[in-house]
């Protein structure tokens, strides 16, 4: 089967063996996989002489179910998330813990972004917001846009900030009035958004040097507020500002509990819900539920779809335009 990989900073199509389907896993024929621009473009820039397969979020049809699989059937559409099981590849072998069934009325193109949806949901869970509380999302690429849309669906008070006017306008079109491309504008409207107390949380989806941005965020939050770092941001900041508000600076790691745990992922051992309410698998399912109930929409967030054979063009699009949002790779008739 074919897969998209990076080698020495370049995109290439490589051949992989599908292998057997272990117990608790399903074999999925990929329909679409979603590019995660922040993670993948950084990975490509850092790619070494060792071939590395890209991707971690996709949707497809179950072709084969391993032993002990009970709740998924052959022919069923599933969203799935999590490298190295989920990749830009024609077929995937995925632990069922990392899948969610997709109802027929949900567009597969939207479901392909389940990985980014789970990451967005986990970021909001890390912020630990309550009904009526406020969040400022900084960095309005596709992940920031998803976080803002999910936060709005949960009735949080939402503000967005990105220096790209197009991205701010895209969020305003979805009903978030306080979406700005100028820091001064954000600060002018902060009192109105938060009742003069400061934001309950700031969720940082930006990348690069973080000291100035985190220090600004520490000024924007209320006493004992939270800053959640989602993007690839360095973590230097003022201890004095943090101490002055007894603020929390937190990292949101991927899609939730279970990520990077071989017991949960490879061995497909779920966590008891009484001890871990929201795993990465349950966050995937929650993203699909939000789509199914029309609580969120990806309208305006899917910029392009390319056949996987044209993956090089898909990645080049991000280098050429900062207005690019989500990009899908599509898969036609697959080979063995």
Give a verbal description of the structure:
This protein is an alpha/beta fold and 336 residues long. The model has no long low-confidence stretch (mean pLDDT 94). The strands form 3 sheets. Strands 3, 5, 6, 7, 8, 15 and 16 form a 7-stranded mixed sheet that branches. Strands 11-10-9-12-13-14 form a 6-stranded parallel sheet, with helices on both faces. The chain contains 10 helices and 16 strands. Helix content is 29%, strand content 26%. The radius of gyration is 20 Å and the shape is globular.
Radius of gyration: 20 Å
**Percent of residues in helical segments?**
25-40%
**Proportion of β residues?**
25-35%
Low-confidence stretches: none
Total DSSP helices = 10
Multimeric state: single chain
How many runs of DSSP E, i.e. beta strands? 16
What is the end-to-end distance? 5 Å
Strand-pairing-aware structural class = alpha/beta
Shape: globular
Q: Please summarize the sheet with the most strands.
A: 7 strands, mixed
Please trace the helix and strand order, writing H or E for each element: EEEHEEEEEHHEHEHEHEHEHEHEHE
Mean pLDDT: 94
């Amino acid at each position: 089967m074919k897969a998209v990989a990076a080698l020495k900073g370049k995109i290439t199509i490589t051949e992989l063996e599908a292998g057997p389907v272990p117990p608790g896993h399903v074999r999925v024929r990929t329909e679409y996989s979603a590019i995660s621009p922040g993670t993948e473009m950084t990975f490509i820039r850092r790619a070494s002489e060792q071939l590395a397969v890209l991707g971690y979020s996709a949707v497809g049809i179950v072709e084969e179910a391993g032993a002990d699989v009970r709740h998924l059937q052959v022919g069923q559409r599933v969203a799935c998330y999590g490298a190295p099981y989920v990749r830009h590849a024609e077929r995937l072998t995925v632990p069922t813990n990392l899948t969610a069934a997709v109802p027929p009325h949900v567009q597969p193109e939207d479901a392909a972004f389940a990985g980014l949806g789970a990451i967005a949901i986990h970021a909001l869970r890390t912020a630990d917001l309550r009904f009526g509380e406020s969040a400022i999302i900084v960095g309005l690429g596709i992940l920031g846009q998803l976080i803002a849309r999910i936060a709005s669906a949960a009735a949080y008070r939402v503000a967005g900030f990105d220096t790209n006017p197009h991205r701010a306008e895209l969020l305003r079109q979805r009903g978030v009035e306080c979406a700005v491309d100028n820091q001064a504008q954000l600060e002018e409207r902060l009192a109105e958004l938060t009742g003069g107390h400061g934001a309950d949380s700031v969720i940082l989806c930006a990348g690069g040097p973080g000291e100035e941005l985190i220090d600004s965020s520490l000024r924007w939050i209320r006493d004992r507020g939270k800053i959640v770092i989602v993007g690839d941001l360095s973590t230097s900041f003022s201890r004095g500002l943090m101490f002055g508000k007894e603020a929390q600076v937190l990292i949101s790691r991927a899609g939730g509990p279970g990520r990077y745990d071989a017991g949960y992922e490879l061995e497909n051992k779920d966590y008891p819900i009484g001890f871990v309410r929201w795993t990465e698998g349950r966050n995937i399912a929650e993203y699909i539920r939000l789509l199914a109930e029309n609580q969120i929409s990806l309208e305006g967030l899917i910029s392009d779809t390319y056949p996987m054979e044209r993956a090089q063009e898909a990645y080049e699009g991000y280098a050429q335009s900062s207005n690019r949002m989500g990009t899908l790779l599509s898969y036609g008739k697959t080979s063995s």
